[in-house]
Design goal:
Blueprint (H helix, E strand, L loop, with lengths): L1 H14 L11 H6 L4 H13 L13 H4 L7 H27 L20 H36 L21 H8 L5 H16 L1 H21 L7 H25 L5 H24 L15 H11 L1
Helix pairs in contact: 1-8, 5-6, 6-11, 8-9, 9-10, 10-11
Length: 316
């Protein structure tokens, strides 16, 4: 999967080679000015592996990455990120614990479904939607925990600058439109090549709406491939369909903005975002959870915080 993403990034930079320019003042810019093999290799690795492209003027960048982050001192940064890792490890374990409490099969490699056919339709979908948002929250917390942990290690040991590790997410739960959620607030680790290889070609041929759908279609294909890597197949309609319908939602918002002059906003916008995510997320979450996605978290089973607390309380 990681190899696939590297290949996609290399194809992107080959197609858009005229845009491969380092941003002035960045480490890549300093390396570009050095006529040495080491500097060239550093920039090549940064292009292939630096998924957020912080040092490069890429073909597409979200608004949140165009903002210049305030300067940060090393040790306050390390304290904040270490605290974040600890808090999110505990939160992730709590989310996993609650999710697994819905069905004992979820905590096994076999996995379990979000749908309980024994329940009436209303309660069945209320249950599945609750589990869907728990699983989505777990994905967010796990991704952020890993990112923050890596940032602590490389800033502490490799002496990288804190400015090279800006926040990965920007409070996605505050989004009042799908455009804001996927364009600015969610992580952008795969955004560049999805836009370059999906959105740009489709938009040139069929227009902006097709470009939006093209980017989300590539995202759906990538996530379907990632699920198949588990070795238990996939549910293409559910996984691809979720991401493609996110694109449909963004296109619908664009049409709404043409009519009303603005994107959804406020409480109504937030309700719209959660409704659309829940509507198409049920089957996608089911596709992952029936293949063991909630088997375990980042903390080994014997050392899970909530289990240790529960054992302590039970033994008191």
């Amino acid at each position: 999967m990681f190899t696939f993403m590297i290949v996609m990034r290399c194809i992107t930079w080959a197609v858009y080679s005229d845009q491969v320019r380092p941003i002035p003042g960045t480490p890549a810019d300093a390396n570009a000015k050095r006529a040495s093999l080491k500097a060239a290799l550093c920039n090549a690795c940064d292009l292939a592996l630096g998924v957020r492209e912080l040092s490069w003027q890429g073909p597409s960048k979200p608004r949140t990455l165009l903002q210049v982050p305030p300067p940060q001192q090393r040790y306050p940064f390390l304290r904040r990120r270490t605290r974040s890792v600890i808090l999110h490890l505990i939160l992730g374990d709590a989310l996993l614990y609650v999710l697994q409490s819905f069905s004992p099969e979820l905590g096994t490699p076999v996995g379990g479904s979000v749908f309980d056919p024994s329940l009436p339709p209303l309660w069945r979908y209320l249950r599945s939607t609750t589990m869907t948002f728990l699983f989505g929250s777990l994905i967010y917390v796990t991704t952020r925990t890993v990112y923050d942990a890596i940032s602590v290690l490389v800033v502490l040991i490799l002496r990288q600058s804190p400015s090279q590790w800006p926040p990965l997410f920007f409070s996605p739960w505050m989004a009042t439109s799908l455009t804001e959620l996927w364009g600015d607030r969610w992580h952008h680790m795969n955004r560049s090549w999805m836009v370059a290889l999906g959105a740009k070609p489709a938009s040139r041929i069929l227009g902006r709406a097709a470009g939006v759908l093209g980017a989300f279609a590539i995202s759906g294909l990538m996530h379907d491939l990632g699920l198949r890597a588990v070795g238990r197949g996939s549910d293409f309609a559910a996984v691809f369909g979720f991401f493609f319908m996110m694109g449909v939602g963004v296109v619908m918002e664009s049409a709404w903005r043409t009519v009303s002059g603005r994107l959804p906003s406020g409480i109504a916008g937030r309700l719209w975002v959660f409704t659309w995510l829940g509507l198409w997320g049920n089957r996608a979450a089911d596709a992952w959870l029936t293949r063991g996605a909630a088997t375990s978290g980042l903390v080994p089973e014997p050392y899970r915080p909530l289990k240790l607390v529960w054992a302590f309380v039970a033994g008191s």
